[in-house]
Amino acid sequence: MAWAQDSTTFVVKDIRLEGLARVPTTEVYAALTINAGDSVDAQRIADSIRSLFKTGDFEDVRVSRDGDVLVYHFAERPYITKINLKGNKSIDKENLLKGLKQAGLSEGSVLERSTLDHVKQELQNQYIAQGRYATEIDVETAARTRNRVEINITIREGSVASIHSISFVGNKAFDSQTLLDQMQLKVHHFLSFIKSDDKYSREKLRGDLDRIKSYYLDRGYAGFKFASTQVTLTPDHKQVFIEINMHEGSVYKVSSVKLVGDLPVPEDQLLPLILIHKGQVFSQQLLTASDDLIAKRIGNDGYVFADVNGQPTLNDADKTAAVTIYVNSQERVYVRRIQMKGNNKTDDEVIRREMRQFESALASNDRMDISKQRLERLGYFKTVKIEKDRVPGSNDLVDLTSTVEEQPSGSIGASIGYSQAVGLTLSANVSQNNVFGTGNTASFGITRNQISQSANISYTNPYFTDDGVSRGFTIYNNRTFDSYLSITTYWTNSVGGNVNFSYPIDETENISFSLGLDHTQIEIGNMPALEVVNYINQNGSQANTEVNTIAWSRSTLNRGMFPDRGASQSLSLEMTAPVTPVNYYKLTYDGQLFVPISGEWVLRFHTLLGYGDGLFGTGHLPFYKNFFTGGIGSLRGYLDYTVAPRSPYMLPYVDPTTGQAVSDPMPSVVGGNAVMDGTMELVVPMPFIKEAATSMRTTVFLDAGQAFDTFSSPYIVDNPPLSAIRYSLGIGFSWLTPIGPLTFSVAKPLHSQPDDQHQIFQFTIGQGF
Questions:
Q1: What is the pLDDT of residue 653?
Q2: What pLDDT is attached to residue 421?
Q3: Contact 155, 90 (CB under 8 A)
């Protein structure tokens, strides 16, 4: 910075700029405090130089005089053409560059030498926040042509400091172990190498302090506060000692509760939403929940930006808290526009038809929540977010943005099972729950094993009408084969199809109807079971039936894939028309309940009940419509369809493997007219994996099930009573991968009978698209 001439006052005739290369002259003239025609002296020139330095563009500015012309000589600061990062592993490049930009260093910006030390400290702070105190950072500059420079940053990441001890000072009401149980950070223990919960992190410590404070506030200690938190490092920066000093205070009881502020709805509608009452021990959790409930209720009337804030006023003399809930409803708003983001494959219309918040209508918290739930239940999306933004220049309008993250909704799949008893069971299918982004469902599947072969095609349009009435159809061909290993020796060939309609009752319930035709042909092998022979003797080997189904279903599940709360139920009645020679009905109930316990720990209960019988005096339920259980979809640990009543073979029985007659063969599984299946599962959190709850699930399960024959048929010799119901205990794992769904289970059969056939390990695997 220099003024190269004397301090004589003179009138500037002109201004000349020299040395500029990158900085536009217009920016320089805008920063100058002197114009042509001004009378200047040394002070005014010095002020102009300072003004130019404030732009940050110049390394040096000198001024000289050429007669009455003022000449400015510039040395521009170099600009940063590239920032090279080397050695960063635990923090990705994007986050580091973001931190550098906040510190004043970014590609394309001017380099200020004074910021380099600040930048180094900023990077150091990012690593310290992770507990990597031993990290070393070198920052160097490399000059390039045309006054450019590259910044080279070399990082030698240190290991995360482990926690040697956590101590508390001032805790009297709760012992140290109770407080440690509230924390995610732990002192080093024998499982630390797996859980990594002994690794210090500043952010985790802040979260733990919040949890400890909440623990006190929820138990009446309304005056609780931390005095200090000290983190001490060992000289080698490898271990930390944490000391937390606190003031517990006393337990406070609620002396009064009142609502104040502008209440846009009647007060008698808000008072029942207050969960904290006079005489109770103060609880911040209950007060916060009351705030949320009131805000949500007010938000249902358009006041979606309402601010509800409950505050206790403490009386230290009698240890009471007077609770005042302040309500600021703000403006009542309407929805101007709803926008969709993230739906690259799914049509906008598919999302819009699930929305229960409409454009030009009052904004409603409930309607937004229901819209979000409906989108999540579709199963097309991994995540769904609905955000509201005020319209600029308007106090009573908002725009909604529905942002979704799509996941595979179709599959080209295969499943494989293996046991020493039956070997391989194979199936393949093609399905798409979101055909061409329309929300329509189509599938084609083939299954083949030693028991059966099936093929089916189905298609459903969930919005056949604008009111949400769905229409679909199914065409199928199911065959069963001779199998001396499990199912009795007969063949069935069923060909049929149906048309179905579903009508929504409300947001969670619907009722459906199906009309179908079925042709079934039966052939018996050389060793048929007596139950099969008796049926054919009475009814013949062919049957044409008109099958009608009516079903009711209800679902409050929070997600279509891997739900963790809510319930679903369905009740269906399948019944033939009286004009057909074979008449029967089947009543089936299927229900499941998800109960969140804590965090990602969830209990799941599942029940399947079924019963069938003949109609119009035509006999009992046809044997080929019987119920079975066993397998990965019902009673894991047992072979598919084998836990059911059995019927003896017609004698003499010839073993197909040896060709020898057997006087007393194992009875053959024929199924029963009733079934009972139940499952209790505990969903176990997946450690170390972000967003595991929406993409994978590990469970510990107890299954129970059995099919029964309630007709006391003389041809059934193995019809177990309720006391003989089978169980299995095991673990399961499901993973919704980018290449398709995978499911595994390992189960130990319990209460097994001598003739039961086991399948300890089962899995399915599919290819998503």
A1: 57
A2: 39
A3: no
Say yes or no: 713 and 624 in one domain.
yes
**Among 191, 222, 247, where does a domain finish?**
247
**Residue 369 pLDDT level (bands cut at 50, 70, 90):** very high
Same domain, 525 and 591: yes
CA–CA separation, 216 and 173 (whole Å): 9
CATH number at 393 reads: 3.10.20.310
Both 266 and 202 in one domain: the answer is no
| Domain range for 267 | 253-328
Residue 307 and residue 199 share a domain: no
Q: Please report where in the chains the tokens 């979606």 appear, as a residue.
A: 304
Q: Is 374 helix (H, G, I), strand (E, B) or coil?
A: helix
Q: Both 402 and 433 in a single domain? A: no
- Distance between terminal CA atoms of the chain? 66
pTM for the full predicted model: 0.63
Q: CA 556 from chain center: how many Å?
A: 16
CA gap 592, 605 in Å, rounded? 5
Looking at residues 89-93, what average pLDDT do you find?
A: 82
Q: What is Dmax (Cα atoms) for the chain? A: 132
More confident residue, 711 or 603: 603
User: In this predicted model, what pLDDT tens digit does every residue of 634-687 receive, in sequence order?
Assistant: 999 998 788 888 887 766 655 555 666 555 556 778 889 999 999 999 998 876
The conformation of residue 236, written as its DSSP 8-state character, comes to T
Q: What is the pLDDT of residues 293-328, one digit of tens each?
A: 999 999 999 999 999 999 999 999 999 999 999 999
Do 319 and 344 fall within a single domain?
A: no
Q: What is the pLDDT of residue 662?
A: 56
Residues with Cβ < 8 Å from 101, sequence gap 6 or more? none
CB 616 within 8 A of CB 582: no
Q: Cα-Cα-Cα-Cα dihedral of 445, 449, 452, 458, to 10°?
A: 0
Report d(CA 214, CA 174) in Å as an integer. Answer: 13
Question: Which residue in 622, 631, 629 sits closest to 669, CA to CA?
Answer: 629
- Of the three residues 328, 360, 385, the one that is the final residue of a domain is 328
The answer for residues whose C-beta is within 8 angstroms of residue 312's C-beta and 6 or more apart is 222, 252, 254, 282, 287, 321, 322, 323, 324
**Count of domains for the chain:** 6
Say how many residues make up the chain.
769
Q: What tokens does 6 get? A: 């004397």
**Tokens in use for 233?**
């490092």
Q: Which residues 6+ apart lie within 8 Å of 179 measured at CB?
A: 168, 171, 212, 215
Are both 52 and 124 inside the same structural domain?
A: no
**Is the pLDDT confidence value at 757 over 50?**
yes
Q: Which of 444-453, 492-501, 714-723 has the lowest mean pLDDT?
A: 444-453
Same structural domain, 497 and 529: yes
pLDDT at position 122 is: 81
**pLDDT tens-digit profile of 170-221?**
999 999 999 999 999 999 887 777 777 888 888 899 999 999 999 999 999 9
The phi, psi pair for 511, rounded to 5°, reads: -125, 140
In degrees, to the nearest 5, what angle opens at C-alpha 384 toward C-alphas 683 and 308?
Answer: 95
Bridge-based pairing state of the strands 653-654 and 661-662: antiparallel
Closest listed residue to residue 115, CA positions, set 80, 167, 156, 72: 80
Closest by CA to 222, choosing from 310, 124, 295, is: 310
